Amino acid sequence: MNIILLGPPGAGKGTQARHLVESRGMVQLSTGDMLREAKDSGSEMGQRVAEVMAKGQLVTDEIVIGLIREKIEAGDGAGFIFDGFPRTLAQADALGELLEATGQGLDAVIEMAVDDEALVRRITARSTCGSCGEVYNDITKPIPADGKCVKCGGTEFKRRPDDNEESLRTRLMEYYKKTSPLIGYYYAKGDLTKIDGLAEIDAVRDSINEVLDA
Ligand code: AMP
To answer: Is 169 a catalytic residue?
Structure first.
């Protein structure tokens, strides 16, 4: 089963993708994570994208499609969760072609709907465990008082350099200009289900499971 989690930055795509990895053994394909890894590894491509990412702009279709192509061609039985991909119509077309060429399909596109003010509140309060990636929020899920990650006991937490108000504004603009047309694209194909991304984390997880089990 292959699915797309679609929604603006801060909608909770990564958090829900991690649940699906744990509960269903699916494989999370986050182009954001892949690009951050490339940046941290100091590769030539990573250096090229670093500035674009820090500003909150989109990396070129060519680069992200290349990253996804490698993973799809390698294949995986349990299925993929596309998290943060596709973000443009060209990426959506490329994904459809790649899946078809490898004899795979797309089972669901889940739109995680949230309002903009909630996004700004969520993102500017967000941090993650440096060891396992568990996501925290200063307001709704603060780092425990003993300074240890609830999942792995790690003691280092980090904030993304693009989780600041200025980059966020650009990321939101990129989302509305280039990614939100995908809602209509997948609706017209009959693949889209919209869920309330502002509900509690467990309720969002239940809504996603309902879609996948339907
Ligand atoms: P994310 O972790 O999904 O919020 O992505 C972080 C940043 O990586 C984005 O703001 C973009 O600069 C870049 N990025 C991630 N995925 C894509 C994509 N599918 N297309 C273009 N740029 C992307």
So the answer is: no
